[in-house]
Protein: Alpha-hydroxy-acid oxidizing protein
Amino acid sequence: MYAAGLDGRVPALPTDPARLEAAARRVLPAHAFDYVAGGAGSGATMRANRAAFDRVGLVPRMLRGNHVRDWSTRLLGTWMPAPLLLGPVGVQSLLHDDGELATARAAAALGVPAVLSTASSHTTEEVAEASGRGPRWYQLYRPTDDDVTASLLARARAAGFTVLVVTLDTWTLGWRPRDLDRAYLPFLRGVGTAIPFSDPAFRAGLARSPEEDLGAAVRHRQRLFTGTAWGWDRLDRIRAQWEGPLVVKGIQRAEDAQLALRHGVDGVIVSNHGGRQVDRAIGALSALPGVVASVAGRVPVLFDSGIRTGADAAVALALGADAVLVGRPFAFGLALGGQAGVHHVVRCLLAELDTTLALAGYRDLAELRATEDVVAGAP
Ligand code: FNR
Structure:
């Protein structure tokens, strides 16, 4: 693509993230675009996520002879070509008919893990099949019902998912004006519900089948998945139910990272859910160094919220993240081109990450992490 561009050929989809978003806006129904692009409240946290990146910078080194480079890493038993994952994004069939299947296929083709959301529009088993020989990570929104939790986890395990991501920050949905003004249409369309709706334990809690009484099924899902605050003891129960690596998503303070470690997690994700939950929370990148210092290498620290480019990913890695996740960028790619659109976005991120770190003078992640002077103050 890089060479094609220098040859005067324009790529099928924009490489610039702002243009990609603008193009997605033109093709998506308003409720679907708002669901992806929107955030909590005034959008202050979404803006803070971006602003936090503007306050740090790389200090490139020259003449390092780093023609050969390797960004591959093994994280929680998963090999990846670069420390990049596609974050869990629910209800993907709102964006493209193939939804999570397209995302899984594109990610698998590039060897990049795509984390499957509990709110997937395709079943766990279908997505597992679509991911072929690619890595499988499963994200849990913990239902209030223990039987449904056990059933979802058993299905994920049986379908070959190896890493469990437990999202802590969304025990109830954030105040999202753009979704509220559209009566949360994305959630009510029924299309984003295949994982719970296909689950035998979920269906057992319904008087009639979801097909017969969709309204009751949607209310049942809302009762099970939102509105009940839970404590660390509940995490212990999930920990006891999952033998493989377990990562918690939504950590923003060093104390919570410590608590998570005490409760036996194998990794933490510093994230504010892309600014979709607590409006006026600090930019997620500002929370990263404190958590990295407090975890002190005992488990991997992953990061998301606000990454739009490969250079953004480079900065988060330089600040100590072991890997990064993206949400909206690949969602817009999916909207514009299905599997090919996701593929395009991920390739751009990987290529820009390599170009950035190459020009900044690095050859692998160990070198990047060993360097203390890579991040300076505000440009
Ligand atoms: C999300 N996110 C999310 N997280 C999660 O744990 N389960 C989920 O089902 C969803 N669903 C979801 C839908 C949409 C449309 C978006 C944009 C995000 C949060 C996601 O995993 C990630 O934390 C953020 O998207 C990261 O921020 P950026 O990259 O979008 O800025």
Remarks:
- The chain has one domain: 17-368.
- Residues 44 and 280 are 5 Å apart (CA to CA).
- The chain has a mean pLDDT of 94.
